[in-house]
Amino acid sequence: MNMLAKAALVDFCIQWLCWAVAATLKTEKFYDLAGSSTFFLVVVQTLVWGERYFTRQKVQTGLVAIWAVRLGSYLVPRILQDGHDKRFDGVRDNPPKFLIYWTIQGVWVFVTLLPTLLLNLKKNDLSLCARDILGWGLWVVGFLFEAIADYQKSQFRSDPANKGMFIQEGLWSISRHPNYFGEILMWTGLFISASSVLEGVELLSVISPMFVAFLLIKVSGIPLLEKAGLKKWGSNPAYQDYLRDIAVLVPYVW
């Protein structure tokens, strides 16, 4: 079995085993933990399987691991504090439907990691180049956007004076979804770096950042939050001004 198939097997086995436990307990509280942990485990394991430990592989794997730890440390306390995740309303009590969500998470992990998995599979190395610096630079910018935006929102929500209000400060004053902007930048950067050594059909792994962008822009990210925002504050003139004046995703642009 090649490394990609082994990585996929590990990924989906984790999701389905977690689904079995979650469906039995009727809880989604460790869904995000399972996702971020799978990213960490799979990317580190493929580096070990590859047995080469080239600088590009180690840096790329390290960046994914850092992102996974940070995401998990942010999302897990949030779900424990909130007690539930609205995405799973009407789902957590329906095992077959619940399984779809866990399977989709497995697809998200594998497709998003694909450029890095292919990179860790490489047996031959090339010198670091401008593409690596560009890619890792984009990752740093994206990571800062996501981490700072999440921190600012967490601090805003923890202040009782802001209860029932929408955030429009810090990075949220230049983008309505700065964390998603950062997320897309990170995976775009990791593809750019990995593409330094990818060849032929391997370059189709550009689907990674495209898939992340599609999910956030068209499926589970922006559409759901924008709809919820309109339902909650749609009649608020200040919110209408915010929608008109602040970019949806890319600061100052779109």
UniProtKB/TrEMBL annotation:
The chain crosses the membrane at residues 62-80, 100-121, 133-149, 184-217. Keywords: Membrane, Signal, Transmembrane, Transmembrane helix. Residues 1-20 form the signal peptide. Pfam families: DUF1295 (PF06966). The keyword Membrane applies. Gene3D superfamilies: 1.20.120.1630. InterPro entries: UstE-like. One of its GO terms (cellular component) is membrane. PANTHER family: 3-OXO-5-ALPHA-STEROID 4-DEHYDROGENASE, STEROID 5-ALPHA REDUCTASE C-TERMINAL DOMAIN-CONTAINING PROTEIN. This is Uncharacterized protein LOC106150581. It comes from Lingula anatina (Brachiopod).
